[in-house]
Amino acid sequence: WDGDAYLDVSYRYNARQNEWQELAPMPSKRAFTTAGTIGRHIYVVGGTDGQSELSICEVYDPNANEWDTCPSMHMPRSGAGAAAIGDILYVIGGVEHQDNDDFQNEFLTPDSADPSSGTWQLFASPLEQERFYPGVAASDTTLYIGGGWKEGMLDTVQSCQVIFRIYLPLQ
User: Fold this and answer.
1) 114: number of CA atoms within 13 Å, CB side?
2) How many C-beta atoms surround the C-beta of residue 146 within 10 A?
3) % pLDDT > 70, the chain
4) More confident residue, 80 or 106
5) Angle at the Cα of 23 (from 41 to 133), degrees rounded to 5?
6) Diameter of the chain by CA atoms?
């Protein structure tokens, strides 16, 4: 979104040369998406095309400079946050204008052999308060969700451990 139109452009920043390089265009023009990386692939999900929220998922391969589509989320949303832990992309919050009070979060587990395939699964919200446009970050086995908007700006940070490790003694 450039203030006038929804865009399909993507760029890479080279910090050493302090310059931007235009990449292959995304398959869909949209704004207010969220993104996360799994391995060398960048997943861009959701957003809006100006008419409605979207559930689409597209994956970028920087080695080939190509985009591909991947399975769509269960629910359309824009303004969500995303982060990956291991090989799972978590999508948290966002705006969904279908008067749905049972808002669910989702995670994608792509097939390691084919990043454009995979399965989305819903999970109950770990948040005390749902939020739109949150900042989401991952560290080790925990997601951190901060800020955002819900009837005003939010200044809280919440965490949610999404992967648990069990250590068993060897005998």
Assistant:
1) 8
2) 16
3) 94
4) 80
5) 65
6) 66
CA distance 67 to 23: 10
Task: Say if residues 116 and 70 touch (Cβ distance below 8 Å).
Answer: yes
Q: What pLDDT is recorded for position 104?
A: 64
* Amino acid identity at 147: G
Mean pLDDT throughout 142-152? 90
Q: Who's near 91: CB < 8 A, 6+ residues apart?
A: 34, 45, 46, 73, 77, 80, 81, 82, 105, 106, 107, 108
Q: What is the pLDDT of residues 104-140, one digit of tens each?
A: 677 888 877 777 888 898 887 777 777 889 999 999 9
Provide CB contacts within 8 A for 69, sequence distance 6+: 27, 56, 57, 58, 59, 116
Q: Show Cβ contacts of residue 2 under 8 Å, excluding neighbours closer than 6 positions.
A: none
